[in-house]
Amino acid sequence: MKAEIIAVGTELLLGQIVNTNAQYISQRLAVVGVDVFYHTVVGDNAVRIRQCIETACKRSDLLIFTGGLGPTMDDLTKDVLAEMLGRKMTYDEPAMAKMTEMFAGRGIHMVESNKRQANVIDGADVLKNSTGLAVGNALRHDGTTYVLLPGPPREMKPMLDNEAIPWLKSQQLIDQSSLYTRMLKFAGIGESGLENALLDLIEQQTDTTIATYAKEGEVLVRLAVKGTDQHEADVKLDQVEQEIHNRLGMHLYAAKDVSLPEVLVEQLSLLGMTLSAAESCTGGMFADMITAVPGSSQVFAGGAVTYSNEMKERILGVPHELLEGENAPGAVSEPTAKAMAEGMRDIADTDFTVAITGVAGPAHSERKPVGLVYIAIAEKGKEIVVEELRLNGDREGIRRRTVYAIMYRLWRRLQDRAVHIH
């Protein structure tokens, strides 16, 4: 079955609100094995809504509408579709009774236009609205299935889950198999490198599909398989995940919906270890991402954003001769990154300390191009390790990639610690 989601509302075209409904519907349909091929947005105009429906009917079997079911004259979805199908409109009596009771209970006069929310296309099944007044419609006509849902997400979501999807199942439009997915998360590797390592699996995929998605500083791999139950799907997903782990285990930090900062906080907590940070070009982004994780106060002692040379000297004790002078290596250098890590480690007395200094842009120099970054990790009882990075992107992208780069290296250190303990 080819499904198309049609969002009706001029406010969507103007960018006044974001079309989150389409995302939610696509996710829910994927779970029950319905393939969504198109997302369409159309304004509150009868001619264009009609054209949109005509186009959709030529390429899709299931049309799911959101919006245009309200009481105003520009809520046109039901009117246009009823006219196209040559059907009349009737009132749903339970919906009318609910509406009348609600207005009476609030002591508000119900204007005539509100009755439009109880309209039902002749022959359609009513989809009850548990959180609002506008009823949904569901019907089949000449081989095409139409499902009409309200626009407000708080009304649309429960109607989709509790009314529309069960209706589709009752019409035997959805088979018994569902789509099960698993998201694998990788760091320390780019999308092209990861895809190259999995190319044969991607090209040969049959039952379990593999898709890669690049994000700032990390790569996601989505595994998807159809099955009659979770156990059947897990057996297939486990096989593919294990093969991917065999190839890219050193980059695979999670096989569930958790972030790298969450994984770090969890590992530090399990190992009973602490962390601190000294940041320059990232401006506290590392500390912000760590402290956004509940429970981080148990492992993160604190950090310092030493943006200027003066603050690097005064707070972290970075030697003046490293920062200023004709032959000084400067703030963006390996010696300075090492000194920052050393200074923060002495202040915080933590098991791990990270330090970051670099050029995020747009300003740069011949010797210090945009994207030049030095990261350092100080581990108690070990030599401080400093690494030079050459990153691409805009200012925000470079900052974020830097944070993920040092988080990945810290994760690798913690992995090694965990292995040695066990």
From TrEMBL:
Pfam families for this protein: CinA, CinA_KH, MoCF_biosynth
Superkingdom per UniProt: Bacteria
Classification via SMART domains: MoCF_biosynth
Boundaries of every MoaB/Mog domain copy: 4-171
InterPro entries xrefs: CinA, CinA-like_C, CinA_C, CinA_KH, Competence-induced_CinA, MoaB/Mog-like_dom_sf, MoaB/Mog_dom
Protein family (similarity comment): Belongs to the CinA family.
Name used for this protein in its record: Putative competence-damage inducible protein
UniProt source species: Paenibacillus alvei (Bacillus alvei)
Gene, per the UniProt record: cinA
